[in-house]
Specification:
By secondary structure, the protein is mainly beta. The protein is built from no helices and 10 strands. It has a single domain, classed as Jelly Rolls (Sandwich), CATH 2.60.120. Strands 1, 2, 3, 4, 5, 6, 7, 8, 9 and 10 form a 10-stranded antiparallel sheet that branches.
Length: 121
């Protein structure tokens, strides 16, 4: 396998994220493309979508590319929009809400590892 890769936009398949209504994920690069350390994904957050409180076992670096929506991280709440960046530490409780705005979208980079979502009551 080559030490470089390109994924064309038209080749990215978006799938619903089971833990949240109105959230879709497309994998742009990951280990299947030869990326040795990180996965890069694009998420789309539909109008009126809510992603429940949850944790992940790996940190998340996110870059907002479309829309405006609310992100909760632990006890803090932020309204984010295109151009904003976020760091969500591993194990931090976080959630998303798009209250009536246009679709939101963000890029998310995560290190390889267990990225399974664990819902928090």
């Amino acid at each position: 396998m080559s030490d470089h890769a390109i994924t064309r936009g038209g080749a990215v398949e978006y799938n619903p994220v089971g833990a949240a209504d109105g959230l879709q994920k497309g994998v742009l690069l990951d280990a299947d493309n030869g990326a040795p350390n990180f996965a890069l994904r694009r998420f789309e957050l539909a109008t009126d979508a809510e992603v429940p409180h949850h944790t992940n076992q790996v940190e998340h670096e996110q870059y907002v590319i479309e829309g405006e929506y609310i992100v909760g991280i632990e006890d803090d709440e932020y309204t984010v929009s295109a151009g904003d960046s976020l760091l969500i530490p591993a194990g931090a409780v976080h959630w998303y809400r798009n209250k009536g705005g246009p679709r939101g979208a963000f890029l998310c980079a995560v290190p390889h590892g267990d990225d399974e979502i664990e819902l928090v009551e």
